[in-house]
Amino acid sequence: MIGLLLLIVGLAVALSIRGIGPPRASTPVGPGGGWVRVTLWWTANVLVILLLGVMLPLRLFTIAALLLLPILLPWPFTRALLIPLGWVRATYHAARLSSLEWRRDRAGGAAFSGAWALLRQPEPSAADRGWLQARIADAPALSPAHLGALGLLAASRGDLEEARAFLEAIPLFDDRITDPLLLQRALDWLVADAATQGRWARVIELTRGATEISAEALLVAGVAQRVVGHPDAPGDAQLQILWERVPLLRRPDRELLARAGCNAPSGVAEAPPAADGGDPLETALKLYASLLERPSPGGLAAAAAAWERALDELQPWLHARAEQLGARRGVPLEAIRAEIEQSLAAIAEAQGLSLAELSRGGLLSAARDRLREDRLSTIELAAEGLQRRLDAGRWLPAADEAREWLALARLYSEGVRSGGDEVRRLVFRAVHHPLCTLSVELFNHRGERWLSNAMTRWLLIEARAAGDLRAAELQERNLRL
Amino acid sequence: MQQDGPRYLGIDLGTTNSAAAVFDGESLALIRAADGATLTPSVVRIDRRGRITVGSRARRALESDPDNTHAEFKRLMGTQSTLPFPAAGLDHPPEALAAEILKSIQGDVEAQLGFTPRCAVVSVPALFELPQSAATSEAARLAGFERVELIQEPVASALAAGWSSDEDAGGAWLVYDMGGGTFDVSLLETRDGLLRVVGHDGDNFLGGRDIDRAIVDWALAQLEREGVTIRRDDPRVRSILSRLKAAAEEVKIDLTRAASSQLFLPQGVELDGDQIDVDLPLPRSTLEGLMAPIVERSLGVCSRLLTQHGLKPEQLERVVLVGGPTVIPYLRERVAEALGTTFSDGLDPMTLVARGAALYAATADLDARPGPSVEPPSSQGRRMWLQYPAMSSDLYPHVAGRLLDGDGPAPEEIQLVRSDGGWSSGWTALGSDGGLVVMLELLPRRPNRFLLQGRRRGGGEEVSVALLPEHFTVVQGMTITDPPLSRSVGVALANDRVRVYLERGTPLPAKRTFVHRTIEGVAKGETSSVLTIPIVQGELDDAHLCRLVGRLEIGGGSLGDSLPAGSEIEVTVEVDRGGRLHAQALVPRLQQVFEEVAHLVVPDAPPETLELQLRGLKTRLEAARAAAMRSDDVALSDRLIDVEWSLQDTNDDVTAARGGDEDAAQKARRTLIEIDATLAEIEDAGAWPELERQARDQLVWASQWVSANGTDQERRMLDEAAASVERARQGKRAAELQRQLRVVGQLGTAAYFRDPNAWRRSFERAASDLHRATDLIAAQALVRQGREALASDDRGRLREIVNALWGLLPADVKDRSLGHGSGLR
Amino acid sequence: MSRSRIAENPFYVLELRPDATAAEIERAGQKLLAMLEIGLEAAASYPTPLGGMPRDPDQVRRAVDELRDPERRIVHELWATLQPDIEATLQLVPGAHGERTEPDPWPGAMAALGWGRRR
Ligand SMILES: Nc1ncnc2c1ncn2[C@@H]1O[C@H](COP(=O)(O)OP(=O)(O)O)[C@@H](O)[C@H]1O
Ligand SMILES: [Mg+2]
């Protein structure tokens, strides 16, 4: 009897340890292969429990079950105990036993979990970070979970920009290597990050259409809809339900619900009415100063209009002052106008307003052109820089190549966000060339099929959006490889 | 001179002659060498035993021992060249020689004033770049000065001229400074006794020695008429030429006073064994004819500067003449005629710069006396830390003070009293931080001494409190607050533009920070991956035309973590009063700071590089001329002729450079940059019509194919792109136009290749260019296979073959065969 | 960029109004530099319509120099039209007080969603 028990336990341990062997990424196992093992694993677990139940008296059974728990149910144990304790290495090893949750990419999942545990440390330890980084560098190919882990490591250093870029890229990877848990947790982090800064609209954008979404993320999305006054915002009762759906241990404070309650839908701020009468220059400066202090779309329009009026009357004053002060070269009104244009555009930009939304003609449209030129040439220069490096054969480690890709992609999508499809069409080619070269190189010579595949998917999506049929065709072919 | 009190030392470290002056707050005195001369020729000789001779004694050796005697080394300051002293087997950088001159002046000061000066102000040309200024500071350090500040020569001259004039002539001043080999002109503005530099211009290769050379040329022509031919490029006549040159300079100086003189070589010259007497009479009028072109060139520079600042000669309030050649009567006449002013007399053009430098030392509070220059320890009292201008043009400057911690009772109120009793501040209470700010009242144009008094309330009555210092002095007179930066400093960007950090004229010290974004990533640990931040100096918009003066590098090896493209970098550029450059880059996302600046010297100009540049520019000139011919633009053709002339001049300099003339090499380098800038401007102007023409052609080509083979979406996109092309054309936005044309090209190409015969046509076109293939045999094989594919109508195969063929052909073949405009990639 | 036009306007830095004379500008610069050199508190900051700003010697030198050039001075005059008094500015702009549409940040989000230690 005892012999049989030991046999089964041994079998179970052996099965889970096998996952520690050659990482899965190099020998991709489709979902089918994973399932066989998972089924075996669970059958073994149930058998063990049953046997124990039959064999032992209740008290001994409880003790045995507790002792076996980490082996039999590694993930719940890791999730509930090791991660909150911030034990990075223990988490890493325990997660490698979690063949159910991380069945598609156990090595990556372990690194991701380890990075997660690191975030739970009061002062994330540099030694642990270095240790995890070494584990990730050992992997023969960069998987999405590895990228996610690097993102969390960046977050632990306070580099949120990089964390965002990496975690946002995860859905671009192939399903076959991406565990649902990874998608969920990556989304959770992004949601938490957006909520921290009060970017509620971003929370809604992130959660909209997500296939793998946790109960927490759904709850925060509901709150976000309430905060911004979204038409589909959940009612009080619905919100309560969303809250209760979150497992007890992970449920946020009720304070979150209060946040949803107190903010009635506010909509876009009204334009401050122009301060009437008075000197137009003074009015413009006042509106401008308050715009700088608290930017709003309405305020921007009001300031632009006030400047327009003020500039109309400025010429005589400029002449008179130039005369009085002996300014021989004079001060061109256009220079002042250009400067104001530029700064209004910069404010619009910082506020994330798409320039296309701004009124045509006048100060803002010239500003838009200028800003657009800046943006486009930045993207082109970055793409050229990348191409130069690739042409020179200076290759970087996979994680750095991913970083390069995502940095360029970010510049690109910022440009597209403010300039729309027209900008996309204009710069897609410039970006396509180096990224395609990079992706092909990663696939052919570096064995980085997952990363390459994700880049290709990104290129395909963008090629279609840009209406570049030839590029789309090419990327479709690459994707099929 | 006052017995005690500060001494301010100013030094004019000239190319030909150096001078020094000292100011005690009231009057200026010149420093004299042992022989009583006020000028120290900037010449250094090192003999066999390593003994160093400086000044007039070394100058005499210029003829007898030219190999071990060097003059004009100032022109090489900030370059990497060293000067050889073969007899002693030594090699010295120019700043070491400059240090020898400074040491000799230090010795003269000690002989005259009884102490070794530890601080001084040294003058530098207005157009010195950062490496040159830094080399000058280094020379002063080598000479043993503890502190040194630099002042621009024209500012010093104007300061000295303003100090010695009685009336307060506000308005625009022009400083005309012709030295031995350089010409500088500066425009300044004075207002309420404060000097401000408005602009500079100059010619680094115009000066007194050009007059000497003209005289030598004349002499050679005279000798030739007598049947004696001396060729300049004959190495055997080198010593004859240098003796002739020395004689020419003597005659030139003679003729300043005398109406006629003769060029006379006492021992005659020996040529091919023949003894030839040289004794040529030279009347003043001939000299005037010889120097006229030189003077006219200098006047051209003056009017260029005036025009640039919107001034006419008659608007000038005063013209200050500086430098040896400006004593020549003919030159003074011509300048007076052209600039329409007379000059303030009684100013010695040879020592004006040194005097101004000494005055500036007072403004900068650089007492030359050895420290510690504090009160004798015997006096008792509470210490005040006072901050006031040692020299002020304002009649009402402020003094700020703070009570320092110390023993004894602290004063509660303080009063300042001018020593003549004519003014007092009244009792003023100290602030809570022990601070005090009082506006003084000065008597004009003299030192004003102020007494410091303190008192406190003790037991119901006022008790006076002794204070240290007991008194201080402020001199009223013309000042200039801070030395201005001579050329703009900025950071070169990836698109060949410059982000200007500190504009020309910014008072020093100055510091500026801007945020940039990286365009290329740097990977942690990869030593080969380096991000470069080039720091440049110059006034041109194109980065490659500005001088690279420093480089900040962010290398993968030193990074804490990888830095992706698009990361923010905060760059800070700082220039201190001595013209030293500091830069720093902060990477916020890594919290890492980089400040190792690779300081660059003025680049060498090897003749080979110069020649290469020269040839490149000639080619560009030809292209520009052809374009101008096509467009029939007369104004343009005129400008091109100017360019051609200066290219020809440069050709001569490059030839001289090949013969080892470092100076000519530097001159050629400078001119080539200028020509490059002019040509770039001309090319830009010409590029636009060409671009417009291409836009038209390409639109026609693309719409033809898109309307035949395009999808609805493509047609819509082409319409939009056409509209954008039109907008870009109207706005004259070249970058945007090129971008839109790329889209047009893509659409056209996609539609073109949907045509059943497109690949066949491309194949034929590529096949017809077969002779240009890099690998002819492979290409021929491909063509054969292509013919087979054509015969069997295998389009997929044909397409592969065409792509392979393109790989073997030069890029332009592919482009031409696609039909959309070339050169736009 | 134009924020600095106001926040670092030479007139505000020197605590002068746009009608100041050249002599007043030089004098103010000299006085402030002296005060900063010995660290008097009164010189440590200056008021602007955008609130108080810290002052350093570099800024003072640059301010004086900017105003010496008549062309540049005119532009600075324009940007210094407002009194350097924040209350007055914001009062005149309706809606400037209170009703900010700023985002409503949730600082505890990371901890609440399991990404950090709960406090
Ligand atoms: N009395 C004079 N008449 C004409 N030229 C003179 C006279 N004195 C000096 N020079 C010339 O002035 C030049 C030197 O001028 P200086 O101002 O000392 O030069 P730098 O500023 O280059 O040191 C030399 O070419 C010298 O021949
Ligand atoms: Mg000189």
Task: Characterise this structure.
The complex is a heterotrimer of chains A (481), B (825) and C (119). Chain A has 22 helices and no strands. Chain A is mostly helical. Chain A has four domains: 2-186, no CATH class; 198-259, no CATH class; 280-353; 363-480. In chain A, helix 6 packs antiparallel against helix 7. Chain A is globular. Chain B has six domains: 1-165 and 347-363, ATPase, nucleotide binding domain (Nucleotidyltransferase, domain 5, 2-Layer Sandwich), CATH 3.30.420.40; 168-343, Nucleotidyltransferase, domain 5 (2-Layer Sandwich); 387-476, Immunoglobulin-like (Sandwich), CATH 2.60.40; 489-599, Sandwich (Substrate Binding Domain Of DNAk, Chain A, domain 1), CATH 2.60.34.10; 607-735, no CATH class; 756-825, no CATH class. In chain B, the strands form nine sheets. In chain B, strands 1, 2, 3, 4, 10 and 11 form a six-stranded mixed β-sheet that branches. In chain B, strands 19, 21, 22, 24, 25 and 27 form a six-stranded mixed β-sheet that branches. Mean pLDDT of chain B is 83; it is low at 811-825. Chain C has a two-stranded antiparallel ribbon. Chain C has a single domain, classed as Orthogonal Bundle (Helix Hairpins), CATH 1.10.287. In chain C, 49% of the residues lie in helices and 7% in strands. With 119 residues, chain C is mainly alpha-helical. The interface between A and B is large, with 41 and 40 residues. Bound molecules: adenosine-5'-diphosphate and magnesium ion.
